[in-house]
What does this fold into?
Amino acid sequence: MEPSGCSPSCPSDHSSKAAGDNCLWEVSDKVRLRRLLCYGFEGDVYTAAKEARLSTAQAGSLISMLREGRGVEAVNEIKSFARDGRAVTRDPVVFALALCSQHSEVTTKRAAFKAVKDVCQDPAHLFSFLQYKKELKEDMKCGIWGRGLRKAVSDWYNGQDALSLAALVTGCKQREGWSHKDVLRLSHTKPTDEAIALISKYVAKGWKEVQVAYADKENPEEVVKVLSYLDVVEKVKHSCDETEVINLIEEHKLEREQLLTAHLKSKFVWRALLKEMPLESVVRILGKMTAKKVLQPGASETQALCERIQSEAALKKAKMHPFSILWASERYKQGQGYRGKTKWATDGSILKALDVAFYKSFLNVQPVGKSFVVAVDVSTSLSSVVPGTAISDAVAAALITMVFARTEPDTHVLAYSEGALVPCSISADMTLAQTTDELVKIPGGSTDCTLPIAWATENGKAVDVFVILTNNPLWTLTASPLASLKKHRQKTGSPSKLVMCGLTSIGHTTADSEDRGVLSICGFDLGAFCVIRNLAQDLI
It folds into this structure.
């Protein structure tokens, strides 16, 4: 691993300790690129649930690396973030790859095109990659459909398992103005086997021509399987028989995107879809399904779904995180959608299943293996709601402390306000309600977010990562958090990092820091855990 983002310009002999420290925490171009790949912004602020269309204006570090002849190095970083799940969302990774592929240097372009099959794992990613290339065309004064892109796209299609590709092209037909028909035509894709050729023909010419072309032939087994699958997809598209649609869904594991809008008006069709729908998608639409009477109290379908929600095997397969389940549970308890148009009467069995699943899902959180101090600001009532969720600050803070306390053996939980700091006894067997009560029982005052760092310094506790939680986006500081952090580093010799998290913040942060070990989080979502994890592991 690169030594903490050190740039070549820093002194190599470390003759000056101060110079060495500056080098260690310098925000280099590679660090900024990693931040861009992780959360779509080169700066030191992650804003939860914020998605924005990326452009060259946000990619100064990547452009700088390309100009310095470090394009292949950048592509390798892009591949790593895609492969290892380090990115909050896939979009920044796809954008960065598109930018590299538009660069004029041949070795970089070649590496970028070779990485397309690794980074673009489904048609939505591929279409997004092409759209970004189209948008970058003017800025970079470079065409799109050269030999390199045609080969990359052809390899993407030819590299798929035939049956999987049939499901992909019928499930995700088009995105961002691109369709499989357009892409296959523009890339001049030449299928490498008969099954892929069949799918290409289906996309380009339609089902009737495929039927005619393959009717009187003795087809290989794989071609027969693909023909059978496409026949099912076409049959569903033209069926008005509810029973037939349900049978085809259950027998062939068809997905919602392969059905007609008219089919989705049936609660029985939805019940069939829910059986194989990814668990993460299921928990997000529990309210809608209850409102539509797809899920009814005491019904066998509801019982079966509850069993699946709290199944350890299902939770592990879906890699469900406690935050995702809590988000879904709190939203379901509300009894209405975000804008209040969809309303439902909550089902106690569903709430119980979500509660059981919440505690089981902690087993899915992989430990980082670092020492943490998680400090909660109790200067106010913590009664506000985290933006974009139905979760209060107090409950969010309790969840965050539970995640670290249950998965990281070396974790200290503190509650603090001005002039007061209290260690909290958060044990692995405590419930969410008990943890919340433990945090909010401590009297408040004004906010002083430097107290947790000072506490660790005074007690000689070497800490890898401080996670400071508050619901106040503008902190009252008796001392600089960065100055306190540097003092802790000097006294303990630990390469400590600091995450300042304003749970209700929608953009306010502490002053920008040129210290690589300091990040701000505005709001909180599942992606925030990814950001903290990456920072703790020196990946951003």
